[in-house]
Each structure stands twice: as structure tokens, then as C-alpha cells.
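User: Fold both of these, please.

Assistant: Here is the first one.
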Amino acid sequence: MSLPNSLTIDEILRESEKAFQRFTAFCREVQPERFFEEPAGQWSVAQHLQHLVIHTKSATAAYAIPKFLVRLFGGKSNRTSISYPALVEKYQSVLAAGGKAQGRYIPKHFKPGTNKDELINHWRQFSAIYLQALRKNWKDDQLDKYLVKHPLLGKITLRELCYFTIYHTDHHLAIVQRSLAS
């Protein structure tokens, strides 16, 4: 998916919501047995969903806590945010160099009988909280003023974290679509 170089907060909210809806719609269409199936050495659709929940909860924290705490933990930016395409390129380079989810970002294995609809509703709940925190607490110009730590990308601005969240959601959608198509 291609987006403009720079997105306003309204565009970020709109594109984030679309990405979340695309992933949700895809998950709803997957049969439960395929949803939890772990192809050799790969995550199941359910695990990709859980990974996105973990990321979204983490990103939400950056938008929900007071700005002075964001500055205390991440810092104040002394640069302009990079463009959406530049952020995507940077992330793809990190992945190509072997970057992977680590630690708390690695999803667990699901027990038999786990409810698919509950997992999807959990995702929808946290993606809605993310959008609400961003919409309620931040103005467009503030997204470039604060930094947060990303486990693979290092320090990024809050706008770049928004860009990452959009791309990351679609990135995982593409992975599960390819996985189930094969």
C-alpha cells in the first residue's frame, strides 16, 4: 500500500482505522482451524493478531501517558519526522538484515479451544483505544516533537510510530494472506 510522504493526524487516524479494519475483516473470514494452525516455523494467524495487539497496546501507552513522561522516557525530538515511505524503507531494511520480534513481542502458542471471536474482539478493543488515545491527546504538530524507543528502529518520533503502526498492520496482513494462499 502506498501513502503520501507526510500524513496529518486526521489522515493517520483514517489510515490506521482502515488498516485495523482490513486485518479484522481478513481474520473473520479465516476458518477457526486455519486461524490457529501454525505452519512449519511460522506464526498462526492468531499469533500474528496477538503480536499486533501487543504492539498496539505498547504504542497506545505512548499516546495515553502525559507528554512530560513521553519526553522523560523517549526524549524531545531535534529533527523532523521522516516520510511514510522512508519509514517503511527503514523497517524493511531492518527486517532484511535479520530483525525480528523479540521478548514480549513474540506471541504465545494458543491452547486448543481458544475462542477466535474473543481474540478478534480483543484486537478491536485495543485498536479502538489506540485511535482514541491518539485522537484525544495529540495535535498534529506535537507528533514531531517527541521521541519513543522502538525495539527495531531505535528512537522514532510519535508521527513515525503512527506510520509504523499503519505499515506494520498491513505488513502482517500480507504475511498471513500469503501463508494461507500457499
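And the second sequence with its predicted structure:
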Amino acid sequence: MLEIVKPQLDVGLVTTDPRVVEFWRDEVGLRLDHVLPIMRGHDQHRFDERGTVVKVNLRETSEGDARSGLEELLIARDGLAATRALADPDGNRICFVPTGEEGVTQIGVRIAVRSLARTLAYYRDVLGFEAESAARVRCGDSVLLFEERADAPTGGSAAQRGWLYLTVQVRDCDAEVARIESLGGRVVTAPRNMGRVARMAMVADPDGNLLEISQRASLVGALPTA
């Protein structure tokens, strides 16, 4: 089981359209915490949703239009009588849902997969998420909802647009990545420091959808120097 230090998953998307940033601020109504420069031509706009960071990565250029299997972000709202579906200028789907619907009490992420059984085994037995049904797992306050489809994307690690990755905050990035790899998980990016902010790595599920394993200094203290 992952030793998490924050009970909410974060979610990242990538776009070349500045209107997507405006959408999250004005239409969804999330608070922009800050903008993080990643590299020249790439800024990350970090919005807060009750502990979840929605990371809108705005790039000047894109290498393609491939998308991952991450298809929809569900946001729970107390007192909401019915669901409210939205889509940003890139077509990324967001849905406000009454608290508790489909097990969503904070955020949920709907993911298209080729095999429910294979996906559940990975998230339950390799990552250590809590299985709540044959098509739903939980990590802290956040849930993942799987939909089996023959046309589900299988190149998530090469996606260039839309919902791109999830992030889990852990106490020890290196230890978690080593454990995941020992259980048969695929490591896409080995642990590395991002300055003094965080140590991170990327792992992929059986369809290539990415999970960032992040050890953030503000949550756990000083980072390893290696």
C-alpha cells in the first residue's frame, strides 16, 4: 500500500489553448493558487479543488493530439440536486455531481480501459489502492472509476493533449517506485529531483495511463540529494 501524505489525488492536463486556463478560473470557478514555470514555453497553472491540484499545463506547441484513457473529472458538491456536465475548449469533460454519487465524495476520475480485471488487479495489488467494486478504487478521498471499452486508448504515456496524468503524494518516492517495479509495475520515468520542490517519478498502468509518484518537500521535508 502506498504511504500517502495527502489524501487527495491531483490531476494534470495539457493544452496549447490559453482559453482552457480561463475556463478553469471562470467557468469551473476554481482558485488559481499559482503559476509554476516548467520550462521555456511551458507554464503550469495550479488550481485548487479542496486539496486536489488541477494542473493545467499550458504549452506553446504540441507534438500531436493523442489522448490518454483519462476521460472525465468528477467534482462532488454538497447540496447539488443533479449532475452538471461541462467541457473545456479542448473537449476535456468535467462533471459536478451530488456528494456520494458513484462513490465520489471529493473528486473522481473516469478512465477508459481495455480490461477491467487487469486494471483492477494493477491498482489494487500493485499500487495498493482500495477496491470498492469491480470498477472502482479509492486512494484517500479520491476515487477512480473504470469503464471497459474495446477502443480505450493504450498509449497514455505518449499522450499530448487533454487529461494526461494523476499525481499521488507519498513519503518516499524511491521506496514506492521500487516496490511498484518489484510487483510488475512499469516505470516510465525513474525518480529525480525537480529542484528543491519535489522528487518525482512516473509509472504506467496496463493501458499506459500515467501516475506521478511525488515526494513534495513542503509535505515531507528535505529531499534526497541523489
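Residues 78 and 99 are 5 Å apart (CA to CA).
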